[in-house]
Predict the 3D structure of the following.
Amino acid sequence: MEKILPNIFRFTLSEFYTNNYCIIKNGKVLLIDCTESKPIIDFIKNNNLELVGLILTHGHVDHICGVKNLITHTKIKPFMNKLDDIQIKISQQIYKEYGFTEYPEFEYSHIEEGRVKIGEFEIEVIHTPGHTEGSISLIIDGVLFSGDTIFRESIGRTDLIGGCFDKLITSINQKIMILPENMIVLPGHGESTTIKHEKIYNPFLK
């Protein structure tokens, strides 16, 4: 666990080094993705926090395997774009193969592009298909959580079911690169970046 901004903690979990983010406001927590449940549950409990929401950027196995156990302990309902429902089914077939022990089975509320409020948190949801059909990126308190759409000097893979390189590049160019250049980007893997840095250094966007 690492504190990367005054109110944002990053958990880099599993052999995939998947980033999960806890955003804290007035003792409430909004979680972005859930690879494994225990570190996050322990963090919330040990700091006397209350989890009020969970948003999944997409349905790949390394982003969702901790969800079932997390919601058993907290009674919240996660949000995900329904276009990624197929990804949950795929994850259920392969999770053991990739070293996960928590079975990815859960109900979720559908989330679409637009503005939503969960507890204390105002969220702008951006549908960014390409890595998967239902991939979303999120702007919360002026920070972009990009899931596996864009990374520092790289982009998400497009060779899995639901992936499409052309759609991904279109999503990035039309929905991500138009954001303010000084906006911090927190991706699903790797280190943070900014819109400006990616405009200059991302080789896939030349």
